Amino acid sequence: MASLRAGLLGVGMMGRHHARVLRELDGVELVAIADPGGDPHAVAGDLDVLPDIDALIDAGIDVAVVAVPTRFHEDAALKLAVAGVHTLVEKPIAHSLAAGQRMVDAFANAELIGAVGHIERFNPALQELRRRIALGELGTVYQVATRRQGPFPSRIADVGVGKDLASHDVDLTAWIVQSDYDVVFGQTAHKSGREYEDMITITGRTESGVIVNNIVNWLSPMKERLTVVTGEKGAFVADTSTGDLTFYANGTIPLEWESVSSFRGVSEGDVTRFAFPKREPLRVEHEAFRDAVLGKSNDVVTMEQGLRTLAVVEAALDSARQGEPKRLARG
């Protein structure tokens, strides 16, 4: 079977990694690259750097990856849909809900695969966490708390930390518990003199009743990427910066210290750090997209799911502006 002919729009900080993985992916051949800004990281190799999305389409591609700034996602995606090209768009899906909806509709009407690059779902720690929750190792899930913080990346200029980073946590939280957000309360801060927020917290609850809390900022000198899932049998802690997963079990040994044993709650039990294969998340994401295009079983993040994530972030931003909780429309 012939390889899928792939095109890449954007070879900046993220696009350069897409180029590398596309070149290494079985069943896919990177045949065209386009970027109006040229090739700052010298990843094109023997390929010409085309000027725009129209030239990329003219190269005769089957699939495309869109890794340009968020405000350009809609224009590129709609042109790719008209051209019959299956497309993976970097997160967030679009700069606005209206634009995202137009993208969803275009790919659905054309019967094409439209996917969004929420790469954290493919992190080995979260994949293993989701697998173990599905097996019932945590019992009923009570709460998901995430912390994603670190210094400001100067390359991000067209969206705030909510759409750029909190979208990761919203997507992975809903995926881990297999339930959409139902209600959110957001708080934001603007401390670095930019147009957009550089700190956000999202507190809320999923439709299934799980309490959620997402702490995200560009104001910390300490880089942190943690997901803590607390449930009936203990708590999982996933560090997505290292791919590590640890389980803190509820204690089963009776406590003999009277002042402690009188507390009616859980006690500390065994702590287990799991060993499991750790594959590069971007490669796993691309494999899922390829398999979706080929009609195989896959875990691709659909444009519909990407739009739902954007809706949650927008609701949290609205909540922060208005100072009141926001309820999400049920899908």
Automatic annotation (TrEMBL):
SUPFAM superfamilies: Glyceraldehyde-3-phosphate dehydrogenase-like, C-terminal domain (SSF55347), NAD(P)-binding Rossmann-fold domains (SSF51735)
Boundaries of every Gfo/Idh/MocA-like oxidoreductase C-terminal domain copy: 131-325
Every Gfo/Idh/MocA-like oxidoreductase N-terminal domain range: 5-118
InterPro entries membership: Gfo/Idh/MocA-like_OxRdtase_C, Gfo/Idh/MocA-like_OxRdtase_N, Gfo/Idh/MocA_Oxidoreductases, NAD(P)-bd_dom_sf
Gene Ontology molecular-function annotations: nucleotide binding
Record family assignment: Belongs to the Gfo/Idh/MocA family.
Listed name of the protein: Putative dehydrogenase
Species in which this protein is naturally found: Microbacterium pseudoresistens
Taxonomic classification: Bacteria, Bacillati, Actinomycetota, Actinomycetes, Micrococcales
